[in-house]
Amino acid sequence: MCALVGADQWPALAFPRGTTRVTSEPNVRAVPQTDPRQLRWVAAASGVGTTVEWYDYFIFSTAAALIFGSQFFSSLSPASGTLAAFATLGAGFLARPLGGVLWGHWGDRIGRKRMLVASLMLMGVATVGVGLLPTYGQIGVWAPILLVLLRLLQGLSAGGEWGGAALMAVEHAPPDKRGVYGSASQIGVPAGLILAQGMFFLMSNVVSSAQFAAWGWRIPFLFSIVLVGVGLFVRLKVEESPVFRALRDDQARSQVPVVEVFRERGRELFLASTSFIANTAIGYVFLAYLLSYGTSVLKLSRNLLLIVIIVGSVSWLISIVASAMWSDRVGRKPVYLIGSVVMVVWAVPFFVLFDTKQPIWLLVAVIVLTAGLGLTFGPQSALFAGMFEPRYRYSGASISYAVGAVVGGGFAPLIATALYTATGTSLSVSLYMVVVGLISLAAVVAIREPRATA
What we know:
There is one protein chain. The chain has 454 residues and is mainly α. It contains 24 helices and 2 strands. The two termini are 24 Å apart.
């Protein structure tokens, strides 16, 4: 993690042990600065843990684009099977708001750390379950039913994962480094995507097409056992958030945080959720729909597309860290706003360049798009954390993230596939990206820059 941003950027190296930061929350005392060594573990736990979580989540997305149609919906035509597979992908998003509510409630009541451990274990169980699941040809209609149930469990886990990881990073960090520390949870998304795409690229090149269809696609899911073990090891070594410890010690925890956050911060919930719609919708067009579109419509090789998406994911990761560092200097909202504008402006050129089928233009298309994604994603942890009071912050951040995800990304690949099928042109998908981009842009404009809180 330190190598990504430069050692001088990390709070652990810039703030002496024993300094304090002051909270503006009236019923919570000042919280002691986290020990520098523990800060490094916090960054690792947030980054590694979310990487494992999103690796599990994204291998499902990749498999839905490449293989699930033939494995679990073989009674349908290839096109209908792809649509059904993307619908299954969307089912996971339906569980994310419920996960946000449940994980948020208990994260505000019993602690951030416990819920992070629970979410990682649940995601691991669901992912390995997919890897062991019989196909439609083996157990008939039960195969897609069980696939949907396992995806719902993944969604339940993802609904609470982000909020806990983001808050652990932000609440341990000194006030002027919360953006860069918050990015530790954000880089787990492109890092998990890189791992997921890399695993499928590896399997595509070490086994034949017949072997990949028969069993090769299962290996990335079963590999999750190893990654979850690593993630648990790191997360169990991290101390609870000092902000939550102060709430607990001062008996200032909310009794019903979900109710309180809706009552006191309803405007912030709406704006935060809406601001995230474009990022997740356009993000899933990039990471899920693009594989299907590139292989089935443009007839590009699967390996080329996997390489392009991996390069785009690296660009996304770099822009997340850079934008988070920038947000510590100029504020969260200006950076978020610039990213939102980039996503709107680039939606049409993105597919124009992609439709050329030329590798160089494919790379330009995804690098600029993912830079826009990173500009909104980088400062998001610190932005969302600052919009809610500590006593119901886990609930507010998790619900906002989950609702934005389900509205924006839940069915983005399905909508993109349906639009192209109906119109026969990628311009319809670009216009869809423009619409969701403008919706989020309006929300970002309306957000008030958060004040400094614990």
